[in-house]
Write a structure and sequence with these properties.
single chain, about 75% helix, mainly alpha
Length: about 100
């Protein structure tokens, strides 16, 4: 019974981490529409948190169309899929106890 609750709590924590990172990616995409101060700590954090993953996606699938970069959208879809799969695995694991 305790193991089941621990697994469910861990599932919620992992779900929260995915959700926070998704919000960071959305904030980064919105910031790309304006000309932010590159020395702003928030802008620097958003770039440092998302650039490594976005650069890998851009290298694998160059998704620019008319000057618009679609790599954040690809990352959001992949993260949402991964979030749902991992959450389902945790729920299935918890139900086995």
């Amino acid at each position: 019974m305790i193991v089941r609750e621990i697994i469910l709590a861990l599932a919620q924590v992992v779900d929260l981490v995915f959700t926070l990172y998704i919000f960071i990616i959305v904030a980064r995409a919105i910031l790309s529409w304006v000309n932010p101060d590159p020395y702003n700590p928030i802008v620097r954090f958003l770039h440092s948190a998302t650039d490594p993953v976005l650069y890998k996606i851009q290298r694998w699938v160059p998704m620019t169309f008319g000057g618009i970069d679609f790599s954040p959208l690809v990352l959001l879809v992949a993260l949402t899929f991964l979030q749902r799969v991992i959450h389902a695995v945790f729920i299935q694991l918890a139900s086995s106890f």
